[in-house]
Design brief:
single chain; 3-stranded antiparallel β-sheet; 12 helices; binds pyridoxal-5'-phosphate
């Protein structure tokens, strides 16, 4: 049994994947069908994802990280090429670049939005820049227009929309803004398949490349030939069946997360910097992340009270793999201050009150 989150005294979980009888039935159907992978559920999930992001195609893959890796590989970015990435992000944004043999170039972020700073992107462009991997961090749409004007037209804009399925920039779906968009279906994201990801894509030749690269390098047309060896990054029908069911519930899943976010906003507005999207945008609420002084003390105090809070994400230049890239003071500030609060559809008003009261007490104490 899971620990009750309904009572005042139980542990309040950081995340709780919103899966139930519909997902269970979908998995049972696949088990009975005899097609556990490369069957019809993969295609159905891909069509649904493309529709949700407003792209002609989507390719389901093993994880958000696999999606990023394949987006870079399909762009034929490799040795000698530079890819600009934010210094404050989940590490796989940059790892995907390194795994492809190219060089990630870190740039600073905006201290309030925590998204990449377009003027820092502008300053980082060189003759070797092939792409920017732009993150809608925690589901907050980044300023796409500012980013577009920061780079020459031949630099590819790839979205790390791992946490932004359902978010909208000026009415347009995140994951459908760049040449490719990378989604994740990890249990802490809005839509989950346990593990999983997808690349949304406009250009049919790029989509063919992603499909080839997720399946050993085998060309779907030829069936036998491999020009460039690749790996197995496929997503199974079992997982895609969960994904299809989750996608059908996307509006409901988003609404529930928005409910919790708005409830936190009401209670915390006077206490901390609360997260928001730009005017005209819709936040996807992958995570609810505030900024506080003495974050580590606050985090420890919340955890001691059974509230599963977490840091926001990573400052890459503080990891051994990405040191010596320069100074990123805003990424440092985000890393030191960001605090993710519990966010999932089972949270009750009583629990939200409890989190808000605990945070209020800790913030006023310091
Ligand atoms: C979750 C996440 C990833 C990685 O996705 P996985 O499915 O866990 O591999 C990458 N980038 C961002 C911004 C994420 O939030």
């Amino acid at each position: 049994m899971v620990q009750g989150t309904e009572t005042g005294a139980g542990v309040i979980r950081l995340a709780w994947p919103d899966v139930g009888p519909a997902e269970l039935a979908a998995v049972a159907d696949v088990l009975e069908s005899g097609f556990l992978t490369m069957g019809p559920k993969v295609e159905e999930f891909e069509r649904g994802l493309a529709a949700a992001c407003g792209t002609p195609d989507a390719v389901a893959v093993a994880s958000g990280t696999a999606a990023l890796h394949l987006a870079v590989l399909a762009s034929e970015i490799g040795e000698g090429d530079e890819v600009i990435v934010p210094a404050y992000t989940f590490p796989s944004t940059a790892n995907a670049v390194v795994l492809s043999g190219a060089t990630p170039v870190l740039v600073d972020v905006d201290p309030v939005t925590m998204n990449v700073d377009p003027s820092a992107v502008y300053d980082a462009v060189t003759e070797r820049t092939r792409a920017v991997i732009a993150v809608h961090l925690f589901g907050r749409p980044l300023d796409w227009e500012a980013l577009q004007s920061a780079v020459p037209p031949d630099v590819a804009l790839i979205e790390d929309a791992a946490g932004a399925l359902g978010a909208r920039w000026r009415g347009m779906p995140c994951g459908g803004l760049g040449v490719m968009g990378c989604l994740s279906f990890h249990p802490r994201k809005v839509v989950t398949t346990g593990e999983g990801g997808a690349v949304t894509v406009f250009d049919p030749s790029l989509s063919a490349a992603v499909r080839r690269l997720r399946h050993h390098g085998i060309d779907a047309g030829s069936g036998v030939d491999i020009v460039r060896p690749s790996t197995n990054y496929r997503l199974s029908d079992l997982q895609c069946a969960i994904g299809v069911t989750q996608l059908a519930r996307l509006d409901e899943l988003l609404r529930e997360r928005r409910r919790v976010a708005e409830a936190y906003n009401e209670r915390l507005a006077e206490i901390v910097t609360t997260p928001a999207a730009d005017d005209g945008d819709e936040h996807g609420w992958q995570a609810y992340v505030v900024q506080v002084e003495r974050r580590d003390d606050v985090l420890a105090a919340l955890r001691a009270q059974g509230i599963e809070a977490q840091i926001g994400t990573y400052a890459l230049h503080r990891l051994s793999a990405y040191r010596e890239q320069g100074r990123f003071p805003c990424a440092d500030a985000c890393f030191e201050r960001a605090l993710a609060l519990p966010l999932h559809s089972r949270l009750t008003d009583v629990e939200i009150d409890r989190v808000a009261a605990a945070l209020d007490k800790e913030v006023s104490r310091h």
